[in-house]
Design a protein that fits this description.
The complex is a heterodimer of chains A (about 110) and B (about 120). Chain A has about 110 residues and is mainly β. Chain A is about 0% helix and about 55% strand. Chain A has no helices and eleven strands. Chain A starts with a strand and ends with a strand. The model of chain A has no long low-confidence stretch (mean pLDDT about 90). Chain B is mainly β and about 120 residues long. Chain B contains no helices and eleven strands. In chain B, strands 2, 4, 5, 6, 9, 10 and 11 form a seven-stranded mixed β-sheet that branches. In chain B, strands 1-3-8-7 form a four-stranded antiparallel β-sheet, with no helix packed on it. In chain B, a hairpin with a 2-residue loop joins strand 5 and strand 6. The termini of chain B are far apart. The mean pLDDT of chain B is about 95. The chains are: A mainly beta (about 110), B mainly beta (about 120). Chains A and B meet through strand 5 and strand 10 of A and strand 4, strand 5 and strand 9 of B.
Chain lengths: ~110, ~120
């Protein structure tokens, strides 16, 4: 069975500081990994995805994530936080084009 | 707007009533997924279709839940005899199954409140 664990249900960073949201996965076979963002009362928007190509993946809005097989991790980073980054972030895993299995989410708060 | 649309956006109902939600996928997308998201949790998979065929159902989908995609285009999710525990955001997503990975595009969701 596949699963993801997001460490930290709430993360607060100052505007301009580094954003680091943690995600570890469990999978018996090489997975596809994703980060989604959700703004209040809206659906999910794909930030970036890992589908077995380059291990460092760049996404939208300046976010990137690195797939580390040895650590079973796929942490999301952004060098400089912006107020508009405040949202809920979800890590997800899937096999191919099947269903997505999501983590419990991390709420990111940006401190002015 | 050519994205995934869901209707209604909000539904308030009394316990024991039946409700039906509709999802219109992106045109030509052959896969359609339903997820449920409760407060403070990530979305959980409910079921998915390829064209009109329902290929997988989660154990979360009790006998009170039924989903259809009769012509391989829009889909409906019906909940019979609603319970307070059914209160959640119901999300629909669609994708075009071709070679390689195919991104799931999500709709805005239907928020259900059962009183």
């Amino acid at each position: 069975a596949q699963s993801v664990t997001q460490l930290g249900s709430h993360v607060s960073v100052s505007e301009g500081a580094l954003v680091l949201l943690r995600c570890n996965y469990s999978s018996s076979v090489p997975p596809y990994l994703f980060w989604y963002v959700q703004y209040p009362n809206q659906g999910l928007q794909l930030l970036l995805k890992y589908t077995s190509a380059a291990t460092l993946v760049k996404g939208i809005n300046g976010f990137e994530a690195e797939f580390k097989k040895s650590e079973t991790s796929f942490h999301l980073t952004k060098p400089s936080a912006h107020m508009s980054d405040a949202a809920e972030y979800f890590c997800a895993v899937s096999f191919g084009n099947e269903k997505l299995t999501f983590g419990t989410g991390t709420r990111l708060t940006i401190i002015p | 707007d050519t994205g995934v649309s869901q209707d209604p956006r909000h539904k308030i109902t009394k316990r024991g009533q039946n409700v039906t939600f509709r999802c219109d996928p992106i045109s030509e997308h052959n896969r359609l997924y339903w997820y449920r998201q409760t407060l403070g949790q990530g979305p959980e998979f409910l079921t998915y279709f390829q064209n009109e065929a329902q290929l997988e159902k989660s154990r979360l989908l009790s006998d009170r839940f039924s989903a259809e995609r009769p012509k391989g285009s829009f889909s409906t999710l019906e909940i019979q005899r609603t319970e307070q525990g059914d209160s959640a955001m119901y999300l629909c997503a669609s994708s075009l199954l071709t070679g390689g990975y195919n991104e799931q595009f999500f709709g805005p969701g239907t928020r259900l409140t059962v009183l």
